Amino acid sequence: MPSYNLYMGCSVPANYPNYEASMIRVAEVLGMELVYMEDVACCGSPNLRAMDYFGWLVVNARTLAIGEKNGYDIVTPCNGCFGSLKDVLHHLKHDPEDLALVNKELAKMDLELKGSIKVRHFVEALYTDVGIEEIKKKITKPLDGVGIAIHYGCHLLRPADVTEFTPSILDELVEVTGATVIEYPLWKQCCGATVLPINEPLAIRLARDKLKSMTEYGAVFATVVCPACGNQLDLQQLGLRDSYNEDYNLPILLYPQILALAMGMSEEEVGLELNRVSADSILDHLSE
Q1: Does the domain spanning 3-122 belong to CATH 1.20.1050.140?
Q2: Distance from C-alpha of 230 to C-alpha of 61, rounded to nearest angstrom
Q3: Which of 50, 165, 262, 268 has its CA at 20 to 30 Å from residue 131's CA atom?
Q4: Does the pTM exceed 0.90?
């Protein structure tokens, strides 16, 4: 059974118990031991990075050092946390001067970052450590080929040399549930979540562009692996009714919810009732 440091971040436990619950249940079925990290702080993405770059380095290096001390690689369900931890680890492994300065701060907490740890998104660990064939064995109620569009999110894909995430991973993980991945032109475009606090009209337009592209190319559902992206694409559908007089009614599902349902778990177990745009219709596509 592979074991991991589970770094939850702030947004998932605060706002998305359905993400956490479905992820934990999937991990249990697949034999993944997720050990909640204790005494860790927010990753600070993106605000702390913009206001205090060195502070952002230290905060994330501390989390990485705690992970190293625990002896497991870090897994997170949040794109923002994934991006911050990967970025800081990459930077400090390539900048010995900054690493020395950061470790000077960590020494005050009896910690040291050596750079031996790996950081992965939960879906990446699913793919690399469990594998598609093993996941396939646990699928008991496959989806009937229904079209699902994937929104990867910026921090999962960029910068590519830092995140080292291959988009085809998530394609295969969706397809193993029996669904069909819908390709659409704006698959790399930002959803607008981080723009929302400073320019709400632009954030709403970015979300509209994504939703419009998805639905025009045949998506019946969309899936995300980022709480901020999920909130943006789910919640802004309500705002679009006021801003553009448009109603997309496109259910936004967190990937572990889709996988858990295909594994035969109930809608209550995956927290389907917590999706703002009702996703109950996905139950009609599950095969016996």
Answers
A1: yes
A2: 27
A3: 268
A4: yes
